[in-house]
Amino acid sequence: MIFGDVPAGYAAGAILAHGIRAEAVSLSKGHRLSEDDCRRLVGAGVQTVIAVRLEPGDLDEDAAARRLAEAIGTDHMRLSAAATGRVNLHAAVDGLFLVDRMAIDRFNRINPAITLATLPDHASVRPGDMVATIKIIPLAVPQDIVERAAGVLAGAEALLVRPFRPHRVGLVATVLPNLKTSVMDKTRLLLESRLSPSGSRLSGEVRVRHEAGALADALVEVAQRDELVIVFGASAVSDRDDVIPAAIRRSGGRVEHVGMPVDPGNLLVLGYIGETPVIGAPGCARSPKENGFDWVLARILAGEKPDRNVLTGMGVGGLLAEIPSRPRPREARVGSRPVGEHAGRIAILVLAAGQARRMGSSGKHKLLAEFDGMPLVRRSADAALAAGAERVIVVTGHRAQEVEAAISGLPVGIVRNALYEDGMSTSLNAGLAAVEAECGAVLVHLADMPRVSSEDLRLLLAAFRKAGGNVIVRAVSGGMRGNPVILPRSTFAAIRNLSGDVGARQIIETSGLPVIDVEIGPAAHFDVDTPEAVAEAGGVLRD
């Protein structure tokens, strides 16, 4: 490869190292110059260009990146098209990303022209997540160097995605008088959510006294039935002879390790009864925030059998305590185009999980109020179905069984938000988790807005599609912002970082994306938070 100044009139076939803008000529970096380009450049007064001329045996940046990507075994991964010397690898399934650091280091030390960056080893991934990127630094590179680098990757498991396997999971919880039943119920629902990406399910829950003998009896029974046993103790483990490790030993099992160098997650217990893993969950696993329990659980669901060496090797990178959330760097950045084969698909999230606190003490639920003989939540779901989006998800929580009964028979997905008491952000996250792998945007529709019609939703969807997709679309009334809103994929990472009883307003104001306002009239502001509002809107509250 020859890099340097080339006379513009004799540069045909060269690749521009820098973009050029002159009279009526605009050519970007990486553009291969044609004879016509050269004539136009000379006509515009350009005398020389800085360009790359390929020598025999050179590969241009895209061909080199493509060759290296093809050397990687792509089971459970997919490759992007080569562009600007880059090929990205994305997970194709829910699973665990595994990477051989020594192999990646060897690859990156062959030549500075060739780079490969990956997620950390044993990162949990979802379909569509970027797991690695190959980048060629110059505009061309000798083929023999590319082949040396490809040889490091070929035939080796330098990086792969190991799919999660569905497991039948048993939950055993111990009880003390000071532990609220509602906390235990919430813990079970949160565990079900953690198991969901793997297709695993809880076979049941057993609650016993916080005493080693009672717990040991339960462990024997559950370990015979299930492939994985998870124990939530009513009190934290403080010693290797405490209730949970003592119960594992009394059940005939072995305690692999007590404690781990991950914070939060220090107080985890790992054992086995026969070949069945038993995890004594730390108290932090009652929270949705990432902790050491998630790391151990993911390994088991991916088919690994973690032991003492694995747990004690988690200290580097194990300091999570000061990180309130862990955004995924593989998510598309704000301002970038949606990526992936499902970029054009839009899901409507109908949020129907709230507690309706402003309805007073009557016990009547606004979403079950009838409008023209139809429960409000069903009316909202019907409008979403008629709007023409690719998927409709209804997120339930408070009085979930009644709300779900009201929409029975409709072709919608239902996601139950176990954390609905923590506010709207948890419903947004629950709905997003169900669709983010297959959609490039979500339309957020609040179920308590009876005047939002299917036509209103169609107007929002049409505006989003017309704009090309990477914008925020917001319903307004008289120019004043309202709901619903459409959020593109480039905001998904920000949605996952929301907490508390907040919606999308913060994201809209800080994203840096264009915001398109669509006038839908008073419907954009009209919700029914009180019995008086329900009556004003023509609804009838039911018991």
UniProtKB/TrEMBL annotation:
The keyword Transferase applies. It comes from the Bacteria. It holds the Pfam family NTP_transf_3. Keywords: Magnesium, Transferase. GO terms for molecular function: transferase activity. InterPro entries: Bifunc_Mopterin-bd, MoaB/Mog-like_dom_sf, MoaB/Mog_dom, MobA-like_NTP_Trfase, Nucleotide-diphossugar_trans. Residues 170-302 form the MoaB/Mog domain. The keyword Phosphoprotein does not apply. This is NTP transferase domain-containing protein.
